[in-house]
From TrEMBL:
Domain Palmitoyltransferase DHHC intervals: 140-265
Keyword vocabulary terms for this entry: Acyltransferase, Membrane, Transferase, Transmembrane, Transmembrane helix
Residue segments, region Disordered: 1-25
Reaction(s) catalysed by this chain's protein: L-cysteinyl-[protein] + hexadecanoyl-CoA = S-hexadecanoyl-L-cysteinyl-[protein] + CoA
Lineage of origin: Eukaryota, Metazoa, Chordata, Craniata, Vertebrata
Organism: Maylandia zebra
Identification of the protein by name: Palmitoyltransferase
GO molecular function: protein-cysteine S-palmitoyltransferase activity
Length: 327
């Protein structure tokens, strides 16, 4: 994914008094450093990423349990007892495919590095190795002591600065950022489609049971069948509304090239935005194709050679705003 155009702004630098006369002030251009993605990406970006957060882990487990509950009710309460074999095969195949893609997208969103900036690289040696021009300014995150690229924000849960961070989602136990936004969008889309499909089947099953004998439309007792279907209906309706809103919000964020945290902080319009279709291609990894809908794109069984970026060691610079050249 290409880095966004870095924003520039003019600020007033107050200079000390010169030996010949009084104090002087001049306007100079202050720029966020144009660090390329290859430089700021951690050397362990290809390794497994997992956030050890108790709340996030519990929410992720609950997500899987709710999907498995829907799977149980759809298969054992509605489809297997059905007398229409073709109805069971078609709906069973469709529902299981959507549920599988939803869980696969959840795993990719949870276990993909969202775009974390390496910790502790705010050293004099590292900044000098970037070969920046005089007058440029770099910003240090005071929490993780890293050089903050443009549009990066610190996550208190991940304890890292995340490139193009939208928000931290406990349901996927991860931040939604530059590298995993596609999988989060797919997760919300497939959960919404799965919920909609389950609701439609519940309605048809209720109508079938009302017309026929309740004892014949399910292998469970009528009270148990009603309770299981009502719980599934409530779950499906709740998650259909929630994930549909999240899906629309994420697509809107991609098309407008502004994240949720940027809107909250009023940082919109401070960088060169890309057109909607180009932003979609950047987020989904290339021109439009079926791979946009696949949570498995980018996976490979072959190990690619890792290119480690050596970060010069040294003491962390105390200042949060660092001007080039260094003193």
């Amino acid at each position: 994914m290409k880095s966004p155009v870095h924003r520039c702004r003019d600020v007033e630098h107050n200079r000390g008094q010169s030996g010949a006369g009084g104090g002087t002030s001049c306007l100079q251009e202050e720029q966020r450093i144009p660090i390329s993605k290859d430089v700021i990406t951690s050397s362990s970006a290809s390794a497994m990423w997992f956030i050890r957060d108790a709340c996030g882990i519990v929410c992720a487990i609950i997500t899987w349990l709710l999907v498995l509950y829907a799977e149980f009710v759809v298969l054992f309460v509605m489809l297997l007892p059905s007398k229409n074999l073709m109805y069971s095969i078609v709906n069973g195949t469709l529902f299981n495919t959507l549920a599988f893609l939803a869980l696969a997208s959840h795993l990719r969103a949870m276990c993909t590095d969202p775009g974390a900036v390496p910790k502790g690289n705010a050293t004099k040696e590292y900044i000098e190795s970037l070969q920046l021009k005089p007058g440029q300014v770099v910003y240090k995150c005071p929490k993780c002591c890293s050089i903050k690229p443009d549009r990066a924000h610190h996550c208190s849960v991940c304890k890292r600065c995340i490139r193009k961070m939208d928000h931290h989602c406990p349901w996927v136990n991860n931040c939604v950022g530059e590298n995993n936004q596609k999988y989060f969008v797919l997760f919300t889309m497939y959960i919404a489609l799965t919920s909609l499909h389950a609701l439609v089947m519940v309605v048809f099953h209720f109508l079938y049971c009302f017309e026929d004998d309740w004892t014949k439309c399910s292998t469970f007792s009528p009270p148990a069948t009603v309770i299981l279907l009502i719980l599934l209906c409530f779950e499906g309706l709740l998650f259909l509304i929630f994930t549909s809103v999240m899906f629309g919000t994420q697509v809107h964020s991609i098309c407008t090239d502004e994240t949720g945290i940027e809107r909250l902080k009023g940082e919109t319009g401070k960088w060169g935005k890309v057109p909607c279709w180009e932003a979609m291609q950047i987020a989904f990894g290339g021109p439009f194709s079926l791979s946009w809908c696949s949570p498995f794109s980018g996976l490979s069984c072959k190990k690619s050679p890792e290119h480690h970026v050596a970060i010069p060691q040294g003491e962390i610079i105390e200042e949060d705003v660092i001007e080039i050249p260094l003193n």
